[in-house]
Amino acid sequence: MKRPAIRKFLIALIAVAAACSHEAGTNDTLTSIGGVRVGHHTLAERPTGCTVVLFGGGANAAGLAQRGSAPGTRDTDLLRPTSAADRIDAVVLSGGSAFGLDTANGVMRWIDEHNGGLFSRGTDVPTVAAAVLIDLWVGGKPQIRPDADCGYRAAAAATTAPVAQGTVGAGAGATVGKMTGLDRAMKGGIGSAAVARAGGLRVGAIAAVNALGDVVDPQSGAVVAGARAEDGSPADVRKLLRTGAPLRRSSVGENTTIAVVVTNARLSKADANRVALMADDGISRSVVPAHTSADGDTVFAVATGAWNGVADVSVVGALAADVLAEAIVRAVRKATGAAGVPAASDRPRQ
Hints:
Mean pLDDT: 89
Strand content: 15-25%
Number of helices: 7
Helix content: 25-40%
CATH class: Alpha Beta
Number of strands: 15
CATH topology: L-amino peptidase D-ALA esterase/amidase
CATH superfamily: L-amino peptidase D-ALA esterase/amidase
Order of helices and strands: HEEEEEHEHEEEEEEHEHHEEH
CATH architecture: 4-Layer Sandwich
Number of domains: 1
C-alpha cells in the first residue's frame, strides 16, 4: 500500500474510532454500566408489559429498600443482609399487578436455556427478583397482563444499547397524578439515567413510574406530569394538599414506583442495602407525595464489582438518589399518550 493510501486509511480509521467513541459516550442510561443488559416486551393487546435487567456472571451483591405500604414483589427476602444469597442474576419490573410476578419464571427459563442447562440439572438456581405495578384499568382489558412469556421475550431482547424509555415495557400502562381521580391522571412510563465519574465509578438507574402523586422536576420545581384540573391544566397536588381541596381516595396498591439502581463498584450486601435506602430518596425528590399508603415503592440496588477502585458507599448512595430522580423525570417526559391517558409530551414543555 502506497504512503498516500496508508495516510487515507489511517485518517478513515481514526474517524471511525472517534465516531464509535462519540456513540458510546451518548449512552447515559443504565446499560452504560458494563455487564448490564436491559430488555423490554410490550403487549400489543393493551398498554402493559415487562422490563428485565440482566447481569453478567459473578457475585453481584444486591440490596433492597421498600418504603411503599403496598408492594408486589418476589424473592426480595433473599436480598436482605441476613440472607445467604450471594448474587443476583436479574431483576424484573412488570405491569399487571401480582399477576405480573409470573414474568420472573420466563426470565429464569431464558437464563437456564442460555447457561447450558446448569440450573435445570440442579447445580444452581438463578436468583431473579421482581416487582410489579398495577395498570389493569388502563386500556379496559384487565384480563390481559404480562406472563412468563413476556419475561422470556424481554430477556431475549435484552441488550447493552441505550435503554428505550417512555411508554414501553413495564412503563407501557403506567400512570401518575391520580389524586384528583383516574380520569384526570397522566401517562407514566419507564425512564433511565446514569452518571460516570472520572476514575471509572459508574452509577445508573431505571424506574417504572406509576405513582399516585405528581412527578416534579427537582431542578426547577415544576410539575412535569400529574393530577389535572377540570380544564386539563396541572392541578399541582402540593397546592391542593395545602389548601385542603377535595381529593379522591385511591385504592391500596393502585400505584407504585419500582426501580433498579446499579453501580460498578465493589460493595458488600449490607452496603448494597444502604445504597438502596439512600437511592430511595430519589423518589421523594421527584414524586409528590411519595411512599403513600396506596403506593408500593420498591428500589433494588445491585453492585457488579467490575470497578477496581475504592468505593465510598455514601457517595454511591448519593449518586444513586440523583440518577433515580432523573430517571423518574425522564420516564414521564419520554412517555406518549395511551388508552386515552394524555402524556407530558402532548403539551408544551414546562
